[in-house]
Each structure stands twice: as C-alpha cells, then as structure tokens.
Amino acid sequence: MYAIVNIAGQQFKVAKDQHLFVHRLQGDEGASIEFDNVLLVEDGGNISVGAPLLSGAIVSAKIVSHLKGDKVIVFKKKRRKGYKKKNGHRQYFTKIQISGISL
To answer: Does the keyword Cell membrane apply (predicted)?
Structure first.
C-alpha cells in the first residue's frame, strides 16, 4: 500500500514505516502529525485517485528529528575585475517516519 501526498508544497510517494526528509515542519521531535492532502492511494491493486484530493484519506507520521542538509557552496566571479563572492547555504529539513495510511 502506498500513497502520493503533498507535504509542504512537494509531492512524495510514501509507504508505511518509510523515512522521509521534508522541508522543516512545525512540531517537536516525537510528535505525531497528519497530512490530509492525499492525491492517490494504492491498496492491493485498487487505485483511488482524487480530483484533486481524496476526501477522508489521511497519512499519519511521526517527527523523528530536525536537522540541516549538506552545505551548498555558491561562488560568483567576474574575470579580470577582482570580483569574487563565496557564499554557503544549508537547508533545514525534518526527518519523518510514516506511521500509517488510512482511507
């Protein structure tokens, strides 16, 4: 059984007991959250597609931890001008574990 769910503006294909890294969500570590923006659910060959969302379908998850992603280096340079800019960025993520999918 799997579902396609919209979490923080991105669509993810999720299954039970799966770990995901999503953009930073509100909530403490260990808290349980529910997502009701379910677009599709597949259960043993039966596919239910919403238009655009499935009513009554809920994906429940648990927040495992909040963390930062890998550093991305942004380097700008203009040749022969002496212009150099070095900048770094680390994206904030939340690691969640999918507890269950219910229709």
So the answer is: no
